[in-house]
Amino acid sequence: MNLSASTTTPPDDAKLLDYNAWLFRSEATPEQRERQIARQAEILQRAEGAIGDQCFLSDLAMVQPTRLVLGDGSYVGAHAYLTGTIETGPDCTINVFTVVRGTVRLGEGVRIGAHTSILGFNHSMAPDRPVYKQAGTEVGITVGDDVWIGSNVTIVDGITIGSHAVIGAGAVVTKDVPEWGIVAGNPARFVRDRRHAKTRRKTAHAELASRLAEFSARAKRQREQLIDAC
């Protein structure tokens, strides 16, 4: 037995692109590209729309829209779930386990982290009958250009997110987000303008250290006076 031989399990190349879809442009084999052409054609037989050049839709994603428009270079990762009317500009990413449903329009260069839910539909909840029997509503969600939506974010129906905004991981977005805005939390709140430098806050430890240093310097300056006074 050769003890120096590697016992590492080789990567599952068959699923590499499903979970790392950004590699499609550079590493897809001719067979994988042919598979994508067939998959996209099959989707467009069931849904209106168009899919641009260099797009990738994982075989492990559930893609069942009524209308689908993907801009050039966009991708849909494994286990994503797409239904409704979905339109994206070029270079948009719908990462693994992301849910995009209802009416959702994304601008150019939108990045969506894993496990995010973008829900462009809703239903009423009047008290006179069970929720599941009530009519649905659909206002839609609009996202501008160059927007980064972190992982585990939830965006509810009727929201508009301005261009260049950043949505912090885990945020629940229930109000419109302005252009260049950074928001975070549940419910999401405005943190700062992305164009402005982040202001560092002193921690309690740093604040105490700073005050002790100031006290030490003052004591050194005043020690002669203190000695004379005593």
From TrEMBL:
SUPFAM superfamilies cross-referenced by the UniProt entry: Trimeric LpxA-like enzymes
Superkingdom field: Bacteria
Keywords, sorted A to Z: Repeat, Transferase
KW Signal (keyword) present: no
CDD domains, sorted: LbH_MAT_like
Gene3D superfamilies, A to Z: Hexapeptide repeat proteins
Record Pfam families: Hexapep
Family, as annotated: Belongs to the transferase hexapeptide repeat family.
Protein's name in the database: Acetyltransferase-like isoleucine patch superfamily enzyme
Species annotation: Microbacterium amylolyticum
Lineage: Bacteria, Bacillati, Actinomycetota, Actinomycetes, Micrococcales
